[in-house]
Amino acid sequence: MSSPAAGAIDHHHDPSTTTGIPNKKLLWWAFLASDCMFFGMLISTHLVYRINPPPGTHEPTQVFDIELTSFSTFILLMSSLMMALAVNAIQRGQVRSMRNSILTTIFFGCIFLGCHVYEFVHFVVDKKMTLTNSLFGSSFYTLTGTHGTHVAIGVLLLGLIYVRSFQSAAPGAGGWAEFGKTVLHVLAVCAAMAITFIVVVPAGIGLVKGEIGLGSFLSQHLASIGGLLAAIAVMVWFGRSRQPVDFGERNAIDVEAIGLYWHFVDIVWIVIFTAVYLLEYL
Question: Hey, which of 22, 86, 102, 131 would disulfide with 14, CB 3.0 to 4.6 Å?
Fold first, then answer.
């Protein structure tokens, strides 16, 4: 077996640890193992309740919008591809390429979350299925809501690692000025993500479905669209920076760790989509 060239970074083995696995990666694997059991419990509970549904339970096929859920599932799968490209890019020291892939992953994650927001509102308002009025609603919202929370946490982690990649390596960098810029950058990224999946995507779905007109869409969400454009403008301003950054190939383990989490969340959704949605149509 060939050994890494002198000075090269081995991203998969760490001879300084007892296991030979980087400690950060091992910690994430341990966390994901516990999370796997947690989701297994939630999925099993939902399926057990579905085997013997009590009287008055909502009929899932009359509640679900399988076309929308299939679309959001496809988007989430594509986000895994972009996450893999981001990890590959940083392992090659290509920071700009990594940023582009992470931004695309964040965008896809926000679309998925926006579909969830629209779906939940639609179920509660139109289908009258709430968390407390049926056993099916309780198990469904608990399971999919927990997964959605995991996706939101993943999007936040990706946003933070994206901002981290702009940390200046210039002599004398640091201090309150640099801290203020970082805070502004984080706020812009978080604002763009929140507005996208809470307001823009759900409203956009309603527009595509013909529930609202273009005029109503613009008038009702003008402030949100303005806020989103302002946040994007701040992100573009930071993205134009050409100064040296304290972020590179040695930080690949951080990106890879978040990538492990993101891929895990995607795999869990494939199981949920199959067990909760598709099985109802068989």
Answer: 22
Q: Quote the domain boundaries for residue 27.
A: 23-46+60-174+246-281
The confidence score (pLDDT) of residue 191 equals 97
Count of CB atoms situated within 10 Å of the CB of 67: 8
d(Cα 161, Cα 87) in Å, to the nearest integer? 12
169 vs 12, 97, 102, 162, 251, CA distance in Å?
A: 26, 19, 21, 16, 14
Q: Three-state SS string across the chain, please?
A: CCCCCCCCCCCCCCCCCCCCCCHHHHHHHHHHHHHHHHHHHHHHHHHHHHHCCCCCCCCHHHHCCHHHHHHHHHHHHHHHHHHHHHHHHHHCCCHHHHHHHHHHHHHHHHHHHHHHHHHHHHHHHCCCCCCCCCHHHHHHHHHHHHHHHHHHHHHHHHHHHHHHCCCECCCCCCHHHHHHHHHHHHHHHHHHHHHHHHHHHHHHHHHHCCCCCHHHHHHHCHHHHHHHHHHHHHHHHHHCCCCCECCCHHHHHHHHHHHHHHHHHHHHHHHHHHHHHHHHHC
Residue 198 within any structural domain of the chain: no
- pTM equals 0.90
Distance CA 123, CA 144 (A): 13
**Across 247-256, average pLDDT:** 90
CATH of the domain at 262: 1.20.120.80
pLDDT tens digits, 169-190: 776 666 778 889 999 999 999 9
Query: Which of 53-57, 134-138, 214-218, 229-233 has the largest mean confidence?
Result: 229-233
pLDDT confidence of residue 5: 45
Tell me whether residue 89 is in a domain.
yes
